[in-house]
Write a structure and sequence with these properties.
- With 238 residues, the protein is mainly alpha-helical.
- The chain has one domain (3-178, 222-236).
- It has helices at residues 3-39, 44-47, 55-61, 63-77, 90-95, 97-127, 154-176, 184-192, 197-205, 208-221, 224-236; strands at residues 131-132, 144-145.
- It is elongated.
């Protein structure tokens, strides 16, 4: 078999695990935004059907960020990047800035909740000797199947899925808390300080290139390695 074909075939199940986790994590993040906005009086996303864990709804709204870019980034870099969004009423946000802050915080909070759930499951399965600690834990291998590794094992697949779930959601949660538009951290700060920083963020949103530059700056200052070390410490502490 052609080595390139063999390599691609090996990547397909890994891609499948990544993509399922990416979809679930991103959809939960966005649905949380819409749900908290609905509770706070803005039903824009709720009446539009975006407060749902159905990925097809979010894919139809953001096909580039939910399909094309994740696929391209995975096969080019081994990582999966993308985005989604839910609509909200900006006038509602201006009238109720604290509610806007809570809406913005809801997405990262959902990611941290998923990461916590993943850590709990991992610790339970470590205690049951289903999983073991790998020699060198990494993004896709916080844990591995206990005993002799078996290619194609469902336990190995579960170990990878949980590893990606925990790491990806911690990264998503922390990255989105950076106070740089269009990240959620900007919405939180804007809601807490509407009369000062809120005006600055409004100006930045009127110029799309500033938001693009903001994303580049955010990614370059974000301590990815420190975040991964934090996750490894949480999973294997005690």
């Amino acid at each position: 078999m052609d080595p390139s074909v063999s390599s691609f075939t090996h990547l397909l199940p890994v891609f499948g695990i990544w993509y399922i986790v990416f979809l679930f994590s991103t959809v939960a993040h966005e649905a949380a935004h819409g749900w908290v906005a609905h509770l706070g009086g803005d039903s824009t996303a709720y009446t539009g059907g975006q407060v749902t864990l159905d990925p097809l709804v979010h894919i139809r709204r953001t096909p580039w960020g939910m399909v094309l870019i994740p696929v391209l980034t995975f096969f080019q870099t081994g990582w999966m990047m993308g985005w989604a969004s839910v609509p909200f009423d900006p006038e509602w946000a201006k009238r109720y800035p604290r509610r806007q802050a809570l809406m913005s915080l809801a997405g990262p909070a959902a990611n941290f909740a998923l990461a916590l759930l993943g850590i709990i499951i991992i610790k339970v399965l470590l205690g049951a000797h289903v999983f073991d600690v790998p020699y060198r834990p990494g993004f896709t291998q916080l844990v591995r199947q206990a005993g002799e590794p078996q290619a194609g094992s469902l336990i190995n697949g579960l170990a990878m899925a949980l590893s990606v779930l925990v790491n990806l959601n911690v990264l998503l949660g922390l990255f989105n808390l950076l106070p740089i538009p269009p990240l959620d951290g900007a919405g939180i700060v804007e809601g807490l300080f509407p009369n000062s920083l809120g005006k600055l963020y409004d100006y930045m949103r009127e110029i799309p290139i500033l938001q693009f530059v903001g994303l580049l700056v955010a990614w370059n200052i974000f301590p990815v390695r420190s975040a991964l070390e934090l996750v490894i410490g949480l999973v294997h502490s005690g």
